C-alpha cells in the first residue's frame, strides 16, 4: 500500500470538493462512503489529478489526524494553512445557542404540538454543524 505524494493543488482540490455541503451530507448519511470517495477521485480526475478512491480516503483520514494534532498543540502557524482553514470550517463546533430560538416565544395553552411544529419549521433549514468525533 503506497503513500501517494500529494501536491498542494491536489490537496486543495480534494478538500474543496470534500467540504461541499452535499458531500458532507452524503458522508453523514452513507454507511458505505466508498461511493463518495469515488466521486471525489473522479472529480479530481476532471481537474487533471490522478488519485484513486482509496488514496482520497487515506489522504482525508491523514489530514483529519493532522488537523486534530494541530488543534491539540495550538500550532498557530499550521492553523494558517489553506487546508486547515477548510477543515476548520467543516469541523467547527457551534455553541448550541441557536437551540433557544427553536422554542416558540409565545405559546398558549391551546397550542397543540402540531401547531408548535409549524412554528419551528422556519428553523429546520438552519445548518447546525457538530464536531465530528471518531
From TrEMBL:
Question: Which Gene3D superfamilies does the entry mention?
Answer: Homeodomain-like
The answer on whether this UniProt entry bears the keyword Coiled coil reads: yes
* One Pfam match: Myb_DNA-bind_4
Coiled coil, from the record: 53-80
- Tell me if Coiled coil is a UniProt keyword of this record: yes
- Keywords assigned by UniProt, alphabetized: Coiled coil
Domain of life of the organism encoding this protein: Eukaryota
The UniProt entry, under InterPro entries, shows:
Myb_DNA-bind_4 (IPR044822)
Q: Which residues form the Myb/SANT-like DNA-binding domain?
A: 5-89
Annotated protein name in UniProt:
Myb/SANT-like DNA-binding domain-containing protein
Whose protein is this, by species?
Xenoophorus captivus
